[in-house]
Amino acid sequence: MKRVFAVIVCTIVFSSCTVVQIVYQIPKIKTIIKIEKHQVEVCKNNCQHFEIKDDHLVLPIKYNNTNDTAIFDTGLTDAFTITGNETLEKDSTLSFPTTTPSGRKQVRFQITKINLENDLLKWENHLAEKVFMDSIPCMTNTTKKILGINAFYDSAIIVLDFDGNKVCIFDTIASMDVNDYFEVKSFFKRVPYVFVKLWEREYRFIFDLGCAFPMIMNTADYVAKQNDITFEGATATDVSGIIYGETHLRIGDTLILADTVKTEVNEIWFSDNFTSNLIGLPFISEFNWIIDCKNKKIYAQRRTDFTPKKVLKEYLYKTMVKDNNLVIASRNKTANPPLKLNTVIKSVNGELITADNLCFYMELLNKTVDWGELSVEVRQ
Q1: What is residue 110's predicted lDDT score, i.e. its pLDDT?
Q2: Long-range contacts of 127-130 (CB under 8 A, 24+ apart)
Q3: How far apart are CA 327 and CA 330, in angstroms?
């Protein structure tokens, strides 16, 4: 099968970094930081290798002259965001409402200047948002650097080559062979959307590389089937912290892209907490993609010799630390014995839970599918 990258290798293509003009849309920006001379370049006709880590597409970067990594997130409307739970002076932060997949949330942020560089970008004195999340006990390394699709602006052709583990940026699609690709119905509004047919109906999904689930839909479209699984409790996290609610899991279903291309999705999650439908990295990585931001079109190419990964690690219970106790945070509603949410774990294998071992036993219980292998005592 002829691949787009074979064409690129055989064609003389000159890489260039083009200076682009950006407009900052951050509220009150002039009141909190002095805007100095800055330069933002997009390096077109270049590729950058990536890795898949913890169900995220991770790109190498040089951040403020230090080697680092950034998650590439096509569902992020900003060019670059840093998330974390550092403590800041109140005078240096702002608060504003923003739309997340789980709805409108009030978030705190600070504006910071950064230098960033890899084979696709070169930024000097670029302004970025540092968004602050509530600290979650026993969760380490919560600081993340996230590169949004708007880092490449409206003039770029973005290629996601999962066969070659590369992200490429091009100036024009004219020199690329797209014969092995099919066009997917799409829509662009700050982020890309694709349309998918499920159950004889068309749905719109955010094309969200930052989502670690194959597919998430709002519960309004949920019709129960025999083998579906229902979970309740803590279901996910976003910039506002932990999301609670009830979710339904369907293992396996058929969907249609571009009217005629049938494919299987191995998991669909339904939740009231997500107001937008999302397709995430586990499903996106079943294809190679061309995102034509200039002409507002999206193309896909089915990968050969690719076996979708099963994302779900089936479980009956998940735990978290709450008020210095280890408690049941999420549960499968078919769990037997049926421990209630917020039940306190008293001991594991005869060892009392203390402040010194809370995190150890949280990790142990959360990676153990069958608690019958352990002796777990709860507080009555």
Answers
A1: 76
A2: 127/24, 127/26, 127/29, 127/33, 127/35, 127/38, 128/78, 128/79, 128/80, 128/81, 128/82, 129/26, 129/78, 129/80, 129/81, 129/82, 130/81, 130/82, 130/83, 130/84, 130/86
A3: 9
Domains of the chain are 1-190+283-312 (2.40.70.10), 317-378 (no CATH)
Q: Assign 181 to helix, strand or coil.
A: coil
What local confidence, expressed as pLDDT, does residue 33 receive? 37
The string over 10-27, giving b where at least 16 C-beta atoms fall within 10 Å of a residue's C-beta and e elsewhere, is eeebeeebeeeeeeeebe
Residue 23 has a pLDDT of 38
Tokens of 372: 């019958």
Cα-Cα-Cα-Cα dihedral sign, residues 196, 197, 199, 202: positive
The amino acid that residue 235 corresponds to is T
Residue 361: per-residue pLDDT? 92
Highest mean pLDDT among 39-48, 239-248, 263-272: 263-272
**Residues 61, 38: Cα–Cα separation, whole Å:** 18
31-45, 75-89, 327-341: range with highest mean pLDDT: 327-341
Helix ranges, 167-322 (H)? 281-284
Which tokens hold the place of 177? 């062979």
